[in-house]
Amino acid sequence: MGRAKTRRQSLAMLAALGAATLVPGGAWAQGDTVKIGVILPMTGPSASTGKQIDAAIKLWVAQNGNKAGGKKVEVILKDDAGIADTTRRLAQELVVNDKVVALAGFGLTPLALATAPIGTQSKTPMVIMAAATSSITEASPYFVRTSFTLPQATLGIAEWAAKNKIKKVVSLVTDYGPGNDAEKYFAERFQLNGGVVLEKLRTPLRGADFAPVLQKVRDLSPDALFVFLPSGQGATFMKQYAERGLDKAGIKLIGTGDITDDDQLNDMGDVALGVVTSHHYSAAHPSETNKKFVAAFEAANKFRPNFMAVGGYDGMRLIYMGLNGSKGAGGDALLNAMKGQIFESPRGPVLIDAQTREPVQDIYTRKVERVNGQLYNIEFDTQKAVKDPAKTK
Ligand code: DHB
User: What confidence score (pLDDT) does residue 388 get?
Assistant: First the structure.
């Protein structure tokens, strides 16, 4: 029974997508060129994510050429402005009209989730360069991730807080997938280590005003405030944190590295000094590979790469590695060739877990310091080869 039903469902699904003419996993195979469809928020509130990833993709191609797996690689960039309906429509057009061999990008969790059925039905690998809710990769077997997951990034700071005289914490997260993950995994691990979460506060993804929640935090007077906000909101938050005098009120600021994002960190001023976070990438990561990456990126763009740029750079790397492995073929051959890849990223060593299609990577605990007049996240502790904790149960 299962088989006929599945096929019927698949056909209905394809028709619903307006993709009835699509031959799954076959259309890309003709010709000497393979196309990669990159969908990013180049405009709108998450434009910094688009700007960073686009720059990193261009750097990868400039450094590694436009050939992989014996084919010419052509990148097609589309702007979804951070709107999920647009991401879905663009993904469908890229698969049906442009016959892309892979989709990539996905600046926010809802944008990745909107694309899941398109990749699944057409057997097109989808490389997540930014979005970080753990469950995304379970929404399609064709998702592969080169960014990180929030549970993976969060446990480091929960451990650090419990070991550093922080007993009472208030958490503040953006009210959607990655925020839910951060809130949950922080509280679980911090409480396991004897800490208390006094209150869990949330702000909306769009048009967040931090004043009311910051007032609440002041009144609750915790030892520390744990924060997750998506890339691009950190600077506004820091400004309001300082304006309300929370930095002077003895409430320590901790979080995942998304709030001390290298894209904005240097403009945050003294309020950011001493903020402790855990994350997978700092522009100050002291490896030779990273020093070369940062120098080349800054020379090409006149701004500093952040963790989004590294997700984009390694996403292109993974697509190239995959195409080399599949000899230029797409579909399952490309997907399978991406699984299990190991490489030295600017962030450190990375393995793409063949079972979960998630990056296994080092997570660093870092503190914001001024180095040669510039603010950086300076790594002082490392958890080696961290798997997504949400998938190890
Ligand atoms: C997501 C977006 C971000 O900008 C970030 O820093 C982490 C997660 C997301 O939507 O998944």
Answer: 98
